[in-house]
């Protein structure tokens, strides 16, 4: 039963453009995606599905979160839906599913009832009703915001990794192939550059000055990017369409960028043969969440 429900959910899910899955909304104060699931099951299975999304049954801690959960359920499920939330009866005391006391509650008149064990929230008036945990209801998950891994920098729905050793102690260089392999090991590619705004962001991140690399030339400290050119055809290693060009029409095996007032070539992408060694490289990949990874597993 659990896997049938899970597969049904994954089948209808399509990746959203923001920090949260499509059909959910970002509640920034909690750094969570409020995700109503339009599949009816008991409370135990609902909890397991939320855990497999790297989340939990939503624990409502204030009126704002309660309204967000109810209104999102009305949009994603139905205006009259009743969805499980993370509230349960523990030996006669109603608590949050994580064992903490209820700091906020919004019970319907006559509830909670002593013979009930779980709670559902109405998408119509956001009131809570006590029910049996064995009853079949839709449910609402709380999934962490999508974030870049530690050490990565987020920009415009992408994550970037800047391999940038202590500039005064540079002692290892990377060819285009070595840099790409290092990125692939992190499920990424050497960065593509698809717009002027992205180029400006990257330049801000790699900026240097004479006090940082006074003993270095303006060649090796360039940051390797994922562009290559063969027979005057330029291509990005991540498969992106080549549409934004700062190569000055020069064709070569590898390209690097730098942002240093000492260097004449900081305004465009410098070109080098395949065996040229760079001290720095930039990796790029999409913002992901465990929700996305789980979905991909079933595709």
Describe the protein's architecture and organization:
The protein has seven helices and 17 strands. The chain starts with a helix and ends with a helix. It is elongated and about 75 Å long. With 299 residues, it is α+β, with helices and mostly antiparallel strands. It has two domains: 144 residues, Mannose-Binding Protein A, Chain A; 134 residues, Mannose-Binding Protein A, Chain A.
Quickly list its features:
single chain, 299 residues, alpha+beta, Mannose-Binding Protein A, Chain A, 2 domains, eight-stranded mixed β-sheet, seven-stranded mixed β-sheet, 23% helix
Mean pLDDT: 85
Tally of strands: 17
CATH topology of the largest domain, what is it called?
Mannose-Binding Protein A, Chain A
Count of all domains: 2
Low-confidence residue ranges: 1-17
InterPro entries: C-type_lectin-like, C-type_lectin-like/link_sf, C-type_lectin/snaclec_domain, CTDL_fold
Domain C-type lectin: 29-142
Keywords: Signal
Protein name: C-type lectin domain-containing protein
In brief:
The chain is an alpha+beta fold and 299 residues long. It has helices spanning 2-12, 43-52, 63-76, 176-184, 196-206, 210-213, 290-298; strands at 25-27, 32-41, 56-57, 82-90, 93-96, 118-122, 128-131, 137-144, 153-155, 158-163, 189-190, 223-225, 227-230, 233-236, 254-257, 270-272, 280-286. The chain folds into two domains: 2-145, Mannose-Binding Protein A, Chain A; 153-286, Mannose-Binding Protein A, Chain A (Roll), CATH 3.10.100.
């Amino acid at each position: 039963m659990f896997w049938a429900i899970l597969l049904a959910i994954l089948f209808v899910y399509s990746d959203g453009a923001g920090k949260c899955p499509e059909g959910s909304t970002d509640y920034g104060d909690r750094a969570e995606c409020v995700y109503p699931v339009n599949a009816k099951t008991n409370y135990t299975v609902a909890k397991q599905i939320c855990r497999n999304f790297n989340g939990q049954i939503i624990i409502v801690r204030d009126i704002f979160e309660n309204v967000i959960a109810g209104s999102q359920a009305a949009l994603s499920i139905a205006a009259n839906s009743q969805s499980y939330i993370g509230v349960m009866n523990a030996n006669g005391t109603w608590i949050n599913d994580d064992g903490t006391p209820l700091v906020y509650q919004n019970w319907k008149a006559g509830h909670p009832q002593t013979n009930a064990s779980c709670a559902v929230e109405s998408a119509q008036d956001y009131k809570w009703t006590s029910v049996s945990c064995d009853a079949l209801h839709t449910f609402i998950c709380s999934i962490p915001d999508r974030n870049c891994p530690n050490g990565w920098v987020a920009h415009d729905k992408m994550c970037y990794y800047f391999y940038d050793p202590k500039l005064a102690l540079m002692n290892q260089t990377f060819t285009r192939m070595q840099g790409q392999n290092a990125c692939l090991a992190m499920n990424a590619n050497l960065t593509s550059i698809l717009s002027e705004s992205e180029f400006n962001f990257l330049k801000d991140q790699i900026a240097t000055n004479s006090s940082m690399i006074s003993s270095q030339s303006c060649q090796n400290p360039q940051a390797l990017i994922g562009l290559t050119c063969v027979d005057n055809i330029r291509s990005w290693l991540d498969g992106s369409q080549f549409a934004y060009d700062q190569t000055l029409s020069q064709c070569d095996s590898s390209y690097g960028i730098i942002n240093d007032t000492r260097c004449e070539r900081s305004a465009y992408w410098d070109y080098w043969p395949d065996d040229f060694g760079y001290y720095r490289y930039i990796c790029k990949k999409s913002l992901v969440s465990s929700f996305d990874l789980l979905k991909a597993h079933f595709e």
